[in-house]
Design brief:
Elements lengths: L5 H8 L5 H13 L3 E2 L7 E4 L2 E4 L1 H13 L7 E5 L5 H12 L19 H4 L1 E2 H5 L16 E4 L8 H4 L7 E6 L2 H18 L7 H9 L8 H14 L4 E5 H6 L1 H12 L5 H5 L2 H9 L1 H5 L2 H5 L1 E4 L2 E4 L18 H15 L4 H8 L4 H6 L1
Parallel strand pairs: 4-6, 4-7, 5-6, 7-8
Antiparallel strand pairs: 1-2, 2-3, 9-10
Helix pairs in contact: 1-2, 1-3, 2-3, 4-12, 4-14, 12-14
The structure holds 3'-phosphate-adenosine-5'-phosphate sulfate.
Protein name: Sulfotransferase
Pfam family, one: Sulfotransfer_1
Keywords: Transferase
Length: about 350
């Protein structure tokens, strides 16, 4: 049987002598693993924990696992696609770098020329690429990284905390809004490239079967939730909906977690609110870097504007039928209830299944 386990594959790759050789060995392995279409414009490849869209991201994850050397000051943003990645990257970058780049410095802020995905890069999409090994040693502390990988596929050096000391910030979002956001993103790509669009019922089917990028959705959330419960000082766990409700509170928690607490003079001077405003959907969407810039993600050049659509809670109701929503909510309840009742309690506020079964 062909291997579909990154850890097993990494054992095979251990004797690779150069970066190129390691990358090629992982590519050869992943290319032989089972694949199928799913909620992506790329073929999805099966690994022991779920599905990855395209060979390159899985290879990048495996190579990062082999080579990434964590520092205690590192902070890694972890999310599933379309859960609030762009927003949390902006908030973290703006918070950590506020001394050299004050949030209210209008035209001078790096966000005017760089999108959040260029300020905090993905390990698997942008850093561990085919062409050359990234030179991460040269980066000053604190280094900020991002990943969409499930917790179990994080680089071993990240999971090795507390010896590495590295911290993780996770954001999750109502699966229905995550799915709808992803569907729009995929279909925008399909439209740009003259491909057939994915219908919403097919998208729901893929999502519920777990055949979505870095899916299944529920296992991804649960992996980070368990890690957060075990080591809250190492894994911060945010919900997109709560960030929308209280962005300032989340900026303060983020700052404290990252070791960049806002001082009293900063609080009095409105630095928290300035950070919230700078990173708000309405502000970011109007920046030149968003309107005219793009980000290279593996081999795809993505216009930065594609990372912004509506930025609302509950937009799913405009796209997903009540029956489809009920199907997703029933899975959420079944998956989260045994090990994460407080997560289900939270998501019950945005679920239709309870209301229907009560009514
Ligand atoms: S990606 O491709 O994984 O990085 O996408 P991600 O950033 O996780 O998700 C994109 C959705 O997040 C919304 N968004 C925001 N919401 C609130 N505030 C800010 N600043 C913000 N920036 C992006 C974006 O509009 C996508 O959600 P939808 O529902 O599609 O609008």
């Amino acid at each position: 049987m062909k291997p579909s386990s990154p850890s097993q594959a990494n054992q095979d790759a251990d004797d690779a002598k150069t970066y190129e050789e390691l990358y090629q060995r992982c590519t050869d392995l992943v290319s032989s693993w089972p694949s199928r279409p799913g909620l992506s414009y790329l073929q999805l490849f099966r690994h022991e924990k779920g599905w990855y869209n395209g060979v390159t991201l899985l290879v990048g994850t495996m190579v990062a696992d082999e080579l990434f050397a964590a520092r205690p000051s590192d902070i890694v943003v972890a999310t599933q696609p379309k859960s609030g990645t762009t927003w949390i990257k902006a908030l973290l970058y703006a918070t950590v770098h506020r001394r050299e780049h004050p949030a209210d410095a209008a035209g001078d802020h790096p966000f005017n020329s760089l999108g959040p995905h260029e300020c905090i890069k993905f390990l698997e999409y942008q850093l561990y690429r085919a062409d050359e090994a990234p030179d991460l040693d040269a980066l000053p502390d604190p280094r900020l990284f991002a990943t969409h990988a499930p917790f179990d596929l994080l680089p071993r050096a990240v999971v090795a905390a507390p010896s590495s000391g590295c911290r993780v910030v996770y954001v999750c979002r109502d699966p229905k809004d995550t799915l709808v956001s992803l569907l729009h993103f995929v279909n925008k790509y399909n439209a740009r490239n003259g491909r057939e669009l994915v219908a919403v019922d097919a998208a729901v089917g893929f999502f519920c079967d777990g055949v979505s990028p870095f899916g299944p959705y529920w296992e991804h959330v649960l992996g980070y939730w368990r890690a957060h419960r075990q080591r809250p000082e190492r894994v911060l766990f945010f919900r997109y909906e709560e960030m929308k409700r209280d962005p300032a509170g989340h900026v303060r928690r983020l700052a404290e977690f990252a070791g960049f607490l806002f001082t009293s003079p900063e609080e009095d001077g409105g630095a928290v609110d300035a950070t919230v405003r700078l990173c708000s959907f309405d502000n970011m969407v109007g920046l030149e870097a968003t309107k005219g810039g793009s980000t290279q993600l593996t081999t795809t050049t993505v216009p930065n504007s594609a990372f912004f659509r509506r930025g609302e809670v509950g937009d799913w109701a405009n796209h997903v039928s009540p029956e489809m929503a009920q199907r997703i909510d029933a899975i959420t309840e079944a998956k989260f209830w045994p090990s994460a009742p407080s997560l289900i309690e939270f998501y019950e506020q945005v679920m239709v299944v309870k209301e229907r079964s009560n009514g």
